[in-house]
Target: Outer membrane protein beta-barrel domain-containing protein
Amino acid sequence: MLRRLPARSAALCSLLMLGCLSQAHAADYTGFGFVFEGDLEYGGDDIATLSFVDGSSQDIKAGQGVSLALGGHYRAGDSPFSVRGTIGYKYVTTKASNADISIGRTVFELVGNYLISDSWWVGAGITHQTGIKFDGDGWTPDIDFDDATGPTIEVGWRWFALSYTNLKYKGEFQGDIDASSFGLTAVSKF
Model:
């Protein structure tokens, strides 16, 4: 049986790769360009709790996941304002070796940024998630959630940021489920 790289290790590798790819920070980019972004997010209500034969358990949270995204950015001349738009995929799985219990969703994001100094910046925008699906892999029922849209804010230094996104998921048989999350974001502009 093939073993997957644990989600935490994959996320850390992704963030380190983004840091290595970044050769400059937001103040150095003007005009149009491309963005590669990685996020490691945690939070929200528990969708399921898995119990393992070794006695341990794992909660699957609605806002939890690792995201990779591509997009574009624009900054006019020496303006302290810029905007970036991305499309990506957010995913979280469990440590189960005999099942692929996971949540996946496509993420669209549009964020405006303001440079406070050459290194520090703040951002605010909107996040839209679609195709939100909890896959129980036959161990627990699958859940399809409606699309969700909510605000996101960021405080960043160079190419890293701390973020907060406020989202609610709604499924066919569920009430509102909090899918809000805190995250660490790495943004590489080129």
User: Anything to note?
Assistant: The chain has one domain: 7-189. Helices lie at 7-21. Residues 1-5, 18-27 have pLDDT under 50 and may be disordered.
